[in-house]
Amino acid sequence: MKLLIAIVQDEDAGKLVSALMSEGYGVTKLATTGGFLRAGNTTLLIGVDDARLDGAMSVIEKVCHSRKQMAAAPAQVSGTATVGGLSPYPIEVIVGGATVFQVNVEQFKKF
Ligand code: 2BA
């Protein structure tokens, strides 16, 4: 069994949860915050049998899209003067589709 930790954009999260659930995957949705943009994103925990791993990855790949986003850059990236730790000059970043970590599950139990 594997645990997928999938960090996705909020815009894709609802559709992704629905798609995974409709295909019989178990999902837990967490509200999270990206360290770079300091903006909300969504992290999904998906426990999946090895045989269904590729299927889960395909659903994530199909649903999650990359997007350009204008963002206030943290000062250490922009190298400019700051307002509240952020540069006044926005930068463009491409976020997503999805950042997925695949972790081996040693044991899985439900009590
Ligand atoms: P954030 O940390 O808010 O990053 C949002 C986007 O900003 C990133 O998109 C990337 O395009 C850009 N970015 C991040 N760090 C940067 C830097 N030092 N300089 C310039 N641009 C930078 P994604 O790579 O698609 O990441 C989306 C979200 O996935 C991240 O939000 C973070 O929450 C998570 N993530 C990505 N890589 C991770 C990692 N290695 N470990 C843990 N979480 C990660």
Map the helices and strands:
Elements lengths: L1 E7 L1 H13 L3 E8 L6 E9 L4 H11 L3 E8 H4 L7 E10 L2 E7 L7
Helix pairs in contact: 1-2
Bound molecules: ligand 2BA.
Ligand 2BA binds next to strand 5.
Radius of gyration: 17 Å
Overall pLDDT level: 91
Distance between the termini: 18 Å
Annotation field: number of helices: 3
> How would the global form be characterised?
elongated
- Ligands bound, unique: ligand 2BA
Query: In terms of structural class, how would the helical and strand content be classed?
Result: alpha+beta
Series of secondary-structure elements, N-terminal to C-terminal: EHEEHEHEE
Residue share in β-strands: 35-45%
Which runs of at least 5 residues are low in confidence (pLDDT < 50)?
none
Helix content range of the residues, please?
Answer: 25-40%
Number of strands: 6
What's the main sheet like?
4 strands, antiparallel
Strand order of the largest sheet: 2-3-1-6
